[in-house]
Specification:
The chain is an alpha+beta fold and about 220 residues long. It contains six helices and nine strands; from the N terminus they run αααβββββββββααα. It is globular, with a radius of gyration of 17 Å.
Length: about 220
């Protein structure tokens, strides 16, 4: 399956920050939205989620911490700083029967994009990448997680859906706070055949997500 790019430009337009994307943000892998998807596993549709995730949970991000750093030899940044986000698990919507994995506890540590540390000093720059969701403290998400290298990770760029107020498409995305209207506007830039989970459940709640996961599991 060819991964589609999420419609960030329209969401950013609604937030009044398109210029930041056009000229490029320091923490972006590319200037196109969250970066061009380079997912290890397909992550857009409900079918992708049930085939590639170990678990799907609803979680609220409650804290973050540095979890390592890589020194960079050249460029404007001295270090790539790794980051782990802890989420309070609210519910489990799906568990894979295809692979063994640890149980998901009340608190879930998820590897997420971190920061870049400028050589010139100053504040760390949040990193946004095309192959993983950022996940910001204080927001709620539906997350398709897979155990990889001893850590929980989102399965890809489409593997986490904003879920503030338990509404699909409402909350944090690519470091910005968006609404369902932003997402709906953004679909004008997406593919007509887009069957992403957030598109088919946009504006709905947890029952709609469970419905789509169940349908995909029967397919």
């Amino acid at each position: 399956m060819v991964s589609r790019q999420r419609p960030l430009l329209a969401a950013l337009a609604a937030a009044g920050v398109v210029a930041g994307v056009v000229v490029g943000w320091s923490g972006l892998d590319t200037v196109n939205g969250c970066g061009l998807p380079a997912n290890r596993w397909p992550s857009e549709s409900a079918r992708d989620w049930v085939e590639n995730a170990d678990v799907v949970v609803v979680g609220r991000a409650v804290r973050e911490r540095e979890s390592g750093r890589e020194k960079l030899a050249v460029g404007a940044y001295r270090y790539d700083v790794r980051r782990t986000v802890t989420l309070t698990r609210e519910s489990v919507l799906f568990e894979s029967r295809l692979r063994g994995h640890p149980a998901v506890g009340d608190l879930v540590d998820v590897a997420a994009p971190g920061w870049k540390e400028p050589r010139s000093g100053g504040a760390l720059v949040p990193q946004v990448t095309g192959d993983a969701p950022r996940i910001e403290v204080g927001h709620v998400y539906v997350l398709a997680l897979r155990r990889d290298g001893g850590e929980w990770r989102g399965i890809g760029e489409g593997g986490v859906v904003p879920f503030d107020g338990h509404v699909v498409g409402q909350g944090e995305w690519c470091g910005l706070t968006v609404t369902t209207d932003d997402f709906a506007e953004g679909e004008r830039f997406g593919r007509h055949e887009d069957d992403s989970l957030e598109k088919v459940t946009l504006g709905e709640g947890v029952r709609a997500v469970e419905r789509e996961l169940k349908r995909a599991g029967r397919g």
